[in-house]
Specification:
69% of the residues lie in helices and 0% in strands. The protein is an all-alpha fold. GO terms for molecular function: DNA-binding transcription factor activity; transcription cis-regulatory region binding.
Length: 223
């Protein structure tokens, strides 16, 4: 199982799992296969119950009320099943992010909402957040040791949002959106990977204050 977790974000056929989730969110890609969705739902529930390591394909088949052969016809290995379950959860994260920032009136407010929403969505996710807490030796190193692929994909997503702000005239054309996105993502990732003794990550008001004080000023280009 370490192999698939270390490969969550790593390139596979030149495209990472996180990149595929990002593409699915932006393009609003759906899955018309109801049986496949049923198996993914069962796998998600099973992984949340006892973790990925201890779960088997037989467990998933039993929960989905299908035969083990049916599961293997849709997902040829456990690693493949895990990849698709995690990909779907990251897709939900991107979807939630896009919905949350629509509530804001200004670019600054969208940065604040995006920061708070991102931390809450990942930490509150029973699978991804649970892995960070219960199996950090699997998930966290995979996010750090993938040659920067994870950060690059999320940075691309954030930079895309900042470019939309530029096109709308909400931030300066002189803003280096890739650099700003890089810094914002690295700050967010550090909070997920390393617990804070100063900032309560469950306090949205405190997180919003941090974002407004340290992230929003990044929207101003250097003088």
């Amino acid at each position: 199982m370490e192999s698939v977790l270390s490969g969550f974000m790593a390139p596979s056929d030149s495209e990472s799992l996180l990149e595929r989730a990002y593409f699915d969110a932006v393009e609003q890609v759906g899955d018309p296969d109801e049986l496949r969705t049923r198996i993914l739902d069962a796998a998600y529930e099973q992984f949340c119950r006892i973790g990925i390591r201890r779960s088997t394909m037989e467990d998933v088949a039993r929960l989905a009320k299908v035969s083990r052969i049916t599961v293997y016809r849709r997902f040829d290995t456990k690693d493949t099943l895990v990849e698709h379950v995690v990909r779907r959860e990251f897709r939900r994260y991107f979807d939630r992010f896009l919905i949350d920032i629509e509530q804001a009136d200004t670019a600054a407010d969208r940065v604040v909402l995006g920061f708070v929403s991102s931390l809450r969505a990942i930490r509150d996710n029973p699978l991804i957040g649970g892995l960070i807490v219960t199996e950090p030796d699997l998930l966290v190193p995979s996010m750090m040791a993938d040659g920067g692929q994870t950060l690059a994909t999320v940075r691309q997503f954030v930079a895309g949002q900042l470019r939309r702000e530029q096109r709308a005239g909400h931030v300066s054309d002189d803003l280096d959106v890739d650099l700003v996105a890089e810094m914002m993502v690295r700050i967010s990732t550090s909070f997920l990977a390393i617990p804070s003794a100063i900032i309560d990550l469950d306090d949205d008001t405190q997180l919003a204050a941090v974002a407004r004080r340290f992230l929003v000023p990044m929207l101003e280009p250097p003088a």
